[in-house]
């Protein structure tokens, strides 16, 4: 059981450190060989097949038309997500409101936009000008204050942007609601006891803690939205990546390399988004578990340091230094 | 401590910090209704420490939560510092529920310490203490930090001020929670079983902070099972059972020579 060799150094705090042979793990080696062979086969299938036309891929992946389409896709993704987040926060708070009218409106919005396909919604928004050639603001059945031609103001871009945002807001609202519900009610109570008003309690105490739960699925939704923007052709808006590349592919009778180009761009953007999500999660995870943030970590040997080391080992699930887990 | 028929009619004794009159609290409605407080009268003079004892489910915590309006009372009145909590009474004697903003302001004068601390986990110890003075009182961050540093020293945790709650032991968290409540310069401090969630060896550090606070002249109402603390620190001990106050008086009477059978039974169990 104990070491067969003499201790490596004189100042080892563990006098009887165990130097046992590890359990043999042949499965790891087998798995590595199998995966390597499969990867080599896949690489071979991709590289040697001339139908992929990698020369065309390389030429057009940097094409100005493609880059412009990537930018439109990004504008649609982030624009609609920003609008959706604002709407979703409002909807989630309405769902929790004391006011039954607010609760009902929020419920109905989520019911409608989650209950119909996004493609159908986008076609509908595209047909808005057919349904209502003129839009006006006024008192129902009464006088009008002003009106405009639908086509003049609501261009395909705005319809696509809001179409995506409205649909997304319903999903995000449910994510936010789950996040707000996940915060210990004792937190709101403690803030209340300090004399904080409801708005402040939400902004300063509940939302920052809910973000820990909200950020991962919202990152997921953003990545999903990146791909959903390809549906705006239903409006129709034809500037984004999928439509632009497939149109180029059709013109040149080379659909495959242009599909590859679109896929590569989607992969690149998704990778960047994942990095951003990682840092967001770390920020909102401060004070929880091992992600202790800069300030706590600097204090070397306090309970935090010890706890962080134990938690990092991953073998203990509970906080050994705490009497009750909140 | 006679029951007063008309809520809020009894003029509070000038020296009284807290005056609870005929308070009833019912949770729920109809068949599910639970009558937790059944006419409670309690007076706490300025600078006094009152300890509330009683079996679980006797309504001690609910009474505490009614005093700072975390629970809306069903009947009776609560007056803190001469101010009727939660309501305004007009000339005709009709009660009007106060706007939540006004209730929040009333609460800000009363500190509360919870059994499970409820520190804000995303803020360091120091930020926890600074939060309410900055957000509620509108104090400058600099002044709030100065005050927070004094308070964290008072509870003996200057070397832990940059730590997040998850990095502190339970006893340390509870001391930070006391400092957080004190940062609002409360006239009254409520403690809801402040040591019940702690390991036995950590109870002492929290009790000694509370004892110092009592010595400094703070008006305190403490719900606890620490009989030793009650004996040593309390000016008054109140024994509650089944939603009513069974017995009240100085610790020498209630703890050492209880008149009521229920008090005797309870003390026999906990001592």
- Overall, the morphology of chain A is flat
Please state the second-level CATH architecture of the domain at 74-239 in chain A.
Answer: Orthogonal Bundle
Count of distinct strands of chain B? 12
Largest interface: A-B, 40 and 46 residues
Beta-strand portion of chain B reads 25-35%
Terminal CA distance of chain B reads 28 Å
Instruction: Give the helices and strands of chain A as they follow along the chain.
Output: HHHHHHEEHHHHHHHH
Strand arrangement in the largest pleated sheet of chain A: 1-2
Question: Rounded to an integer, what's the Rg of chain A over CA atoms?
Answer: 28 Å
Beta strands of chain A, count: 2
Using only C-alpha atoms, the radius of gyration of chain B works out to 19 Å
Low-pLDDT residue intervals, each spanning 5 or more residues of chain B: 1-12
CATH superfamily of the domain at 74-239 in chain A: MetI-like
Q: Report mean pLDDT of chain B, rounded to a whole number.
A: 92
Structural class of chain B: alpha/beta
Count of helical regions of chain A:
14
Q: SSE order of chain B in H/E notation?
A: EEEHEEEEHEHHHEHEHEEHH
List the strand order in the largest sheet of chain B. Answer: 8-9-10-3-11-12
Q: Can you give the helix content of chain B as a percent range?
A: 25-40%
């Amino acid at each position: 059981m104990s070491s067969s060799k003499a201790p490596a150094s004189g100042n080892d705090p563990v006098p009887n450190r165990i130097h046992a042979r590890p359990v043999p793990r042949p499965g790891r080696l087998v798995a590595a060989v199998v995966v390597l062979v499969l990867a080599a086969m896949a690489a071979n299938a991709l590289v040697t097949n001339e139908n992929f036309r990698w020369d065309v891929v390389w030429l057009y992946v940097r094409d100005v038309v493609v880059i412009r389409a990537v930018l439109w896709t990004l504008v649609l993704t982030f624009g609609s997500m920003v609008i959706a987040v604002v709407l979703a926060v409002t909807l989630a708070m309405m769902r929790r409101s004391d006011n039954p009218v607010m609760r009902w409106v929020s419920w109905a919005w989520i019911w409608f936009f989650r209950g119909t396909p996004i493609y159908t919604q986008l076609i509908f928004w595209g047909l808005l000008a057919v349904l209502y050639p003129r839009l006006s603001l006024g008192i129902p059945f009464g006088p009008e204050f002003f009106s405009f031609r639908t086509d003049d103001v609501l261009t395909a871009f705005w319809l696509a942007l809001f179409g995506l945002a409205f649909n997304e807001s319903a999903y995000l609202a449910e994510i936010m609601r789950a996040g707000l519900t996940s915060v210990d009610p004792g937190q709101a109570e403690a803030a209340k006891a300090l004399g904080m008003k409801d708005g402040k309690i939400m902004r300063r105490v509940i939302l920052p803690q809910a973000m820990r739960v909200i950020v991962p699925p919202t990152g997921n939704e953003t990545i999903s939205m990146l791909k959903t923007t390809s549906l705006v052709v239903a409006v129709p808006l034809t500037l984004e990546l999928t439509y632009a590349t497939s149109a180029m592919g059709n013109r040149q009778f080379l659909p495959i390399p242009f599909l590859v180009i679109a896929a590569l761009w989607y992969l690149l953007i998704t990778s960047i988004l994942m990095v951003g999500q990682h840092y967001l999660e770390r920020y909102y995870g401060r004070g929880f578990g091992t992600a202790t943030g800069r300030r706590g970590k600097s204090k070397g040997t306090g309970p935090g340091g010890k706890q962080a080391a134990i938690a990092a080992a991953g073998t203990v699930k509970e906080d050994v230094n705490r009497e009750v887990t909140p | 401590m006679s029951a007063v028929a008309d809520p809020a009619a009894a003029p509070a004794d000038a020296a009284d910090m807290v005056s609870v009159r005929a308070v009833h609290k019912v949770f729920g409605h109809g068949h599910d209704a639970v009558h937790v407080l059944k006419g409670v009268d309690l007076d706490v003079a300025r600078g006094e420490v009152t300890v509330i004892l009683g079996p679980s489910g006797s309504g001690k915590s609910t009474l505490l939560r009614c005093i700072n309006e975390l629970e809306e009372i069903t009947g009776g009145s609560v007056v803190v510092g001469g101010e009727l909590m939660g309501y305004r009474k007009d000339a005709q004697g009709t009660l009007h529920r106060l706007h939540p903003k006004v209730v929040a302001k009333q609460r800000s004068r009363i500190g509360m310490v919870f059994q499970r601390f409820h520190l804000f986990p995303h803020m360091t110890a120091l930020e926890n203490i600074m939060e309410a003075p900055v957000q509620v009182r509108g104090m400058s961050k600099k002044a709030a930090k100065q005050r927070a540093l004094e308070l964290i020293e008072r509870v003996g945790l200057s070397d832990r001020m940059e730590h997040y709650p998850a990095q502190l032991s339970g006893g340390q968290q509870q001391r930070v929670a006391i400092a957080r409540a004190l940062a609002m310069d409360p006239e009254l401090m409520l403690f809801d079983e402040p040591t019940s969630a702690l390991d036995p060896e950590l109870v002492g550090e929290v009790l000694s902070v509370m004892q110092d606070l009592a010595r400094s002249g703070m008006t305190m109402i403490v719900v606890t099972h620490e009989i030793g603390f009650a004996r040593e620190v309390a000016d008054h001990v109140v024994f509650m059972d089944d939603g009513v106050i069974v017995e009240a008086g100085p610790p020498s009477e209630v703890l050492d020579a209880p008149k009521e059978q229920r008090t005797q039974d309870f003390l026999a169990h906990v001592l």
